[in-house]
Design a protein that fits this description.
Blueprint (H helix, E strand, L loop, with lengths): L6 E7 L2 H17 L2 E7 L2 H8 L5 E2 L6 H9 L5 E4 L7 H12 L3 E4 L6 H4 L12 E4 L2 H9 L7 E3 L8 H7 L2 H10 L7 E6 L16 H19 L3 E6 L18 E4 L5 H7 L2 E4 L3 H8 L4 E4 L10 H5 L3 E3 L2 H13 L1 H12 L7 H13 L8
Parallel strand pairs: 1-2, 1-4, 2-3, 4-5, 5-6, 6-7, 8-9, 8-11, 9-10, 11-12, 12-13
Length: 375
């Protein structure tokens, strides 16, 4: 008598953040042995899944609706699992096909922003999966406020954050020294990381009131002045977002601050090796807080609600005007009392490491029915 057929799940991701969130779920599905995963990647998800050793096939951005249906029918498929992407949204193409075929669908959210935009197709139609795995109660309240049905939302946590406690525990002083030396830093030098993201390229509907260049235009002169006042060497490492080219930052110069632009190395290790992590609202800032790093979010001229949850929770420091940048940076670099207060808050900010487990539970619930559950 043959062994029972394994259920088949199709996973689709395009953006790096979504691919990182879905990757631990795929790994969890494969560990059980009873599931076959057809993982399909495009754009930045290709590199992310390569780095994370996820077996996948690459698909083209112009994949047709008919091809999406064929892929889902070739199995058959027990569940569609997706991240979310922008501006190309093949995840929504597959979600439409899954709905037509009666295949349950689950999207895993990776960040606290642009909820409606993530699930709106090029024609302006909202395309929703049967369930959306979301990070926390903050995301739930915000999504309900944007019209998402509560029954569609499952608070699971962010699977990509499950291993942050392990990263934090195993990062040694010697490894910190090695990372800093790789950037040519001596013993007394100060390293500030700027984790960028391409706000200068977002559509007007998603524009927050500033760009990455506005943030850097406030950050670099402030660090120059602080370096003058304290007589300390400061290095600024600009880390481009996966959707940015390093060439867009090559013209930045500091009067006194040494600036390096590099997408190389592990972002988590670089954050832990830095004396201060800065940026705007990128997910790396959230990860840095979980890793115990001191974080300043620079958003000069913000004109929408701040999407960075760590700012709202008080574990990162938010700056909304250019004038505030220098005093806040000075405090977070040289005021040991303020730095210790921040460290104490960070010590209580930890993930339970069980988000993947909760997403897998949602998958078990969805695949336990012959058709998508009613919302």
């Amino acid at each position: 008598m043959g062994s029972p057929a394994r259920r088949r799940i199709v996973a689709v991701c395009g953006d790096s953040g979504g691919a990182a969130a879905v990757a631990p779920v795929i790994q969890g599905l494969l560990k059980g042995g009873g599931t076959r995963v057809t993982a399909l990647a495009y754009q930045k998800a290709v590199g992310k899944w390569k780095d994370l050793h996820i077996p996948f096939s690459e698909v083209l951005e112009d994949l047709s609706p008919e091809e999406a249906r064929r892929i889902l029918q070739d199995g058959p498929t027990a569940l569609l699992l997706t991240g979310t992407s922008f501006p190309v949204k093949l995840e929504l193409l597959f979600t439409k096909a899954a709905r037509e075929l009666g295949v349950p669908s689950l999207a895993v959210l990776d960040f606290w922003s642009n909820y409606g935009l993530r699930f709106t197709d090029p024609g302006g139609v909202r395309v929703l999966p049967d369930r959306i795995a979301i990070m926390d109660s903050i995301a739930r309240e915000e999504m309900i406020g944007e019209g998402f049905e509560p029954g569609r939302l499952a608070v699971t946590g962010q699977p990509a954050y499950d291993d942050l406690g392990e990263w934090r525990a195993r990062f040694t002083a010697s490894r910190r020294r090695e990372v800093r030396e790789s950037f040519g830093l001596g013993e007394g030098a100060i390293l500030v990381l700027f984790a960028s993201q391409p706000f200068s390229k977002v559509p007007f509907t998603a524009y927050p009131g500033y760009t990455e260049h506005d943030a850097l235009a406030a950050l670099i002169p402030a660090l120059d002045q602080i370096s003058d006042e304290e007589g300390r060497d400061i290095s600024l490492l600009i880390r481009p977002h996966p959707n940015e080219s390093p060439d867009g930052f090559r013209n930045y110069r500091g009067r006194r601050v040494k600036i390096e632009v590099s997408p190389e190395g592990n972002g988590r290790e670089i954050a832990m090796a830095s004396d201060l992590v800065t940026g705007m609202t990128t997910g790396l800032l959230v990860e840095a807080c979980y890793l115990g790093c001191l974080v300043v979010s620079i958003q000069p001229g913000l004109r929408v609600p701040d999407p960075l949850p760590t700012n709202r929770l008080g574990v990162s420091r938010a700056v909304y005007s250019t004038e505030e940048v220098k005093p806040v940076l000075h405090q977070m670099l040289f005021d040991e009392g303020r730095r210790e207060e921040a460290r104490q808050r960070l010590s209580r900010f930890q993930t339970d490491g069980k988000a993947t487990e909760r997403v897998l539970r949602v998958i078990r619930d969805l695949t336990g029915h012959g058709k998508p559950p009613e919302i």
